[in-house]
């Protein structure tokens, strides 16, 4: 691994080996989803607490401050929408030259294992890795499942993560599941936990993140469970405690409740 690749990965993954990624790329297939109608306003109070921002080039240019020092993971796949026939029918939307122009620390795309478009999305990943390696840019693969949520088990996700790693992804984003250690142990590159749909309670989020971290994940790539929360800053700070301070789920829940009630310093 050359210096450029190592340097970019070091921007994303902190010295403790952990990371807190904040995705706001949902609009590329969902449009102006709740609480992300104005991305710039949504992320402004959250930027100080995330280790990287996962975003499309359009929102990066129009909504993210140019003087930010938060590393950018550029979403480079798309071509479908929530009202279309199949979310899996994605292609590459953004070139590596564009990623370099935008000073991205990494690029990311989705793969849809087991879908009608499995081969297409895996070849998208392979092509992206080929192009990105020339410029020392790491690729994050997202093991997407579209609307088929029943696929989120260890056997399926373990298959997805391993294939993504085999094709050259430097980091894999996947869903938490029961027996999550089986997923991580079968993947030779770092795994970060996706959030998925918003949960009923904050404690449920802290519990699956804590479990995933205990079972080998290096961090999270959570969006809706943060910025759709009624108290997004306390939420992201509590999650950071789990990731970077080894807080338990209960401790994180206490931090969240303390911050949202104003009992802790909000700096």
Keywords:
single chain; 267 residues; alpha/beta; TIM Barrel; eight-stranded parallel β-barrel; two-stranded antiparallel ribbon; 12 helices; globular
Can you lay out the helices and strands and say which pair or pack?
Blueprint: H1 3-12, E1 19-23, H2 27-30, H3 39-43, E2 52-55, H4 57-63, E3 72-75, E4 77-78, E5 91-92, H5 96-101, E6 106-111, H6 118-134, E7 139-143, H7 154-166, E8 171-175, H8 180-185, E9 191-194, H9 202-214, E10 219-221, H10 224-227, H11 232-244, H12 249-260
Structure commentary:
The protein is an alpha/beta fold and 267 residues long. The chain has helices at 3-12, 27-30, 39-43, 57-63, 96-101, 118-134, 154-166, 180-185, 202-214, 224-227, 232-244, 249-260; strands spanning 19-23, 52-55, 72-75, 77-78, 91-92, 106-111, 139-143, 171-175, 191-194, 219-221. The protein has a single domain (3-198, 218-227), classed as Alpha-Beta Barrel (TIM Barrel). It has twelve helices and ten strands. The strands form two sheets. The protein has an eight-stranded parallel beta barrel with strand order 1-2-3-6-7-8-9-10, surrounded by six helices. The chain has a two-stranded antiparallel sheet with strand order 4-5. The longest helix is centred in the middle third of the chain and has 17 residues, at 118-134. The model has no long low-confidence stretch (mean pLDDT 95).
Summarize the structure.
By secondary structure, the chain is an alpha/beta fold.
